[in-house]
Predict the 3D structure of the following.
Amino acid sequence: MRTLDRYIIKKFLVTFVFTLGLFALISVFIDISEKIDDFLKRKPSIYVIIFEYYIYFIPYILGMFSPIFVFLSAMFFNSKLAQNSEIIAILNTGISYPRFLRPYFIATTILAGSFLYLNTIVIPICDKKRYLFEEEWIRERKTTQSNNISYVIEPGTMLHMESFNYLDSTGFNASIERFENNKITQRIFANRLVWNKDKQNWTMEFYQRRFFTNGKEIVEKGKALDTTLNIKPDEFVIKSQFVSSMTNPELNEYIRREKEKGSPNINKYYVELYKRIANPISFFVLTLTAIGISSRKSRGGTGLALGIGIFLTFAFLMAIQVFNTLGMNNVLPPAIAVWIPNSIFIIIAI
């Protein structure tokens, strides 16, 4: 590795770490200002605030904004080289432009590999701990109940509940409907649906079961009916914020179970899975785009290049948000929706 390579790699990485670290520090101060009333009201210790919240809050911020700061770091450092005529001097020594780009992509590979691991394993764990802290110390009312639940247990079987209490794993006003050839064949209604931890099954209390066969309806009533359902209480707790708190192995397993049940909302889980990989890969696209924009010496100095960079950064963020939403709402296949912003920026870079 040449001295030039080491110089560019070092400067690029230092610029990235400094700018992202500074932004993370500012984000912490802003977050403290927003939560100071809650901290004073509930009085968690300084140790708890730092080591049970902010130590997990910072990775969350780093993961969210890392692509932006890869872009800005590459643009800022490269535009300084251009303004000092260093790029021209480097190319005049006989070094080709692709060879000039190599140290940038070595540094980007280091960053992409690091954040791929962070996005798939570390940040989800931190996100879960951050959310639990907010549940304990920030939110006025802790989440102990969900209302109006509809769940696809398996293809052809739907579960509806008016409410579900997480503390005692009990559902209220529950009904199970079974279908064959788009026709309802059985419906069971119960005042309570109770999870039996020892038996690993459910009990429907004060139930009414209706069978629909050959145009006839058969009604059966009783006090208790044990039944086995392909669902456990902890699955009712899973919400959108908990999906982001799953590591990739956990998320893959959750998606597998949801596919078996025929869940209609599976695309939003695929978007979450794919974007964890797409974000680190976008580092390469954004680095190439940043270098392409900032490699020429401009009369406007580095300020002009940074102005263009900030504009493109907001455009990139908007594109991610728009296409992720389209993927979640089944307008586009999740894989395509997640990768479109990267594809657009590749075209811009070329």
Summary: The mean pLDDT is 87. Residues 145-234 form a domain with the SH3 type barrels. fold (CATH 2.30.30). The CA atoms of residues 157 and 180 lie 9 Å apart.
